[in-house]
Amino acid sequence: MWSIVPNLFLPLAKKAKIGGKAGALLDILESGGQKAAPLSEQALRQLRSDILNGALAPGQQLKLDALKDHYGFSSSPLREALNRLGAENLVINEERRGFFVGAISIADIQEITRLRILLEPEALGDAITNGDDAWEAAIISTHYRLERVQNRLTSGQPFILDRDWASLHEEFHHALLAACSSPKLLQIRTTLFYQAERYWHLWASNNTTPANRGSNHERLLDAVLQRDIVRSTDLLKNHISQTTEIVVKYMAQENN
Fold this sequence. Notes:
The chain is mainly alpha-helical and 256 residues long. The protein has helices spanning 20-30, 39-52, 64-71, 75-87, 106-130, 133-152, 163-177, 183-205, 218-225, 229-255, and strands spanning 61-62, 91-94, 98-101.
């Protein structure tokens, strides 16, 4: 069976707290002039990242006391973050037992993939129809930054294992669909994207020198910029399905 060894929770040194206006000013200065995100949002991002990259393993119990020591947040933002991750099906809240990282299975990634193939091409076609010059510029810019990071990665490992690449990969796929006129469609698509990303990390962390490192975006970019809906959606479907085929093949081998 496959496994990802969970990180041991090590207590973090607690920062000194500065209250009132001085504390608020310090927060802004430390964030480069930008007000820090709410604590629940910060907790959500950190927990989600650790679930997606396997630091928090499938089935692992998420005890609040351990999470408080590890992440440095109080119970309230952590509980809110866990409930939001439950809505994304990344965390399960079992009555009287508490929170657990959601399980993984071949059936689950196959269902996620079927839904993505139904929904993402619809969102992409709508985005191509409605997208303006600013939408195109955002796609080009994000792809350029993704390629720059990718060209610096020389280890031979799957690209998804690099935090910067993974972040820009998510940003690129989001940029493609950003002009879609349906917020609800985009919300569902984003949840499915996160669920799928966990499986990409699972495969990548156990295949550190694959022949295919996980990049196939240039043809998709060109088709989208040419406003070719049929070609763009076909390429997106293939991109989604081919990635899942690699993951399922690996998981099936581990099951045997």
